Amino acid sequence: MRNTQNRSFNALYRWLALAVGVFLLSGCASTLDARVTSYQQWPAGTEGATYTIVATDTQRNNLEFQAYADMIRANISATGLVEAQQPELARFDVQFSYSSPVSQTWVQQYNDNYINNGWGFSPFFGGYGGAYSGWGGGFYMGPSVVNVPVEIHKNTLVVTINDKHNQGAEVYRSSAVSISQDDNLTELMPYLARAVFDNFPGNNGQVREVRYERTH
Prior knowledge:
Helices cover 26% and strands 33% of the residues. With 216 residues, it is α+β, with helices and mostly antiparallel strands. Strands 1, 2, 3, 4, 5, 6, 7 and 8 form an eight-stranded mixed beta sheet that branches.
């Protein structure tokens, strides 16, 4: 009996660890978690220098791109740059790309529709006597744990800044990635735009985790 109990508890703990990992990866409903990776060779003395946002051929006249460009403008002040009134005279070219590819991962849940649909994923759900006992006070043998496929979206924003005073060299590159189960890149973009400029310019090759309170 003791070996059976240990195996049951081990299965529950493995499931709980995985469930917590998925929860932390995606963030709860009121927050957004993102991983930010930044590279920089930022020049000195750029306060007040001008920039312009440069669109690729496919981005030009694209309403979605224009909306995201406004979000970049709202957060780029951390660099000390000012948008140029005459784009051709700007020192820095700012470009960005975005994507939300969908992929499949696996999570574990109970093989029991009553628990999954009626009681969520609580690994400590038991009978009337609690997780450790059944009606008669004996050890409660819960349902088996199964792997189920879940689709996730890898919401990604990549921003690059090139210095035309240095032969167009790339002086800043930052990517922000947030995982979600919904296709909601538009809702997440303001936070991704904020993330790529937080702690600007940061250390070269820096990888950090950020979390923001969501306002909607």
